[in-house]
Amino acid sequence: LWVAWKKVNDVNFWEQPAPGSDPTGFGRIVHQQIVAQNADADSASLTTENAWIDWQGTTHLTEQREITVHPPTADVMQISVSLTLQPNNREVVLDLRRGEPGADGRFYSGMAIRFDNSITPGNLLDADGRTEPMDIFGKQSLWCSFTTQHPTDNETYGVAIVDHPDNPRYPTTWWVRNRENYCLIHPSLVYYEPLHLAADETLNLQYSVVLYRGQPNAEVFE
User: Is residue 5 part of a domain?
Assistant: First the structure.
């Protein structure tokens, strides 16, 4: 589970340059400080501040990231993810590399989960009942799940990402893959068009990540 972005003001905050190569066009998301950490009977949370800094040392975004883990049951654990992105005295354009999926298109834009190769491929399911990757790809849905059998104990487990109704462009558009050695679920906020943030504007994104034993249960996600 990670947060990254293919294009922020045309700077690549998704990948890093190869060692020893020209860093032009690349950026890094750099931890700045722990803002808060709390734990009680109801939840445990950690809030951090991160700076999105390009290869020239320019900060494009200041991010506050809050991760909250809720008390698990025997079969379900929920993690809440909150991202607050603030431009650093400049307009920010959040975008991605457009093109045909699987060819020039690289629809990487925000939070994503990629699964260990040992549990791939698995089974996808979105809130609208779609199960085939190319049927889910580029479609809007409230949530998307990945379910698989773990080789260690042969039990069935899964993970779902659930969009939040306060997020822009709700319900989100999905970018997914489900094949051997490459399974990924990813809510892609800017799949169809860029998102522009004014210098004084703040972007708030919220997601639930639900880990479960057994088959996906829409009642748990919604």
Answer: no
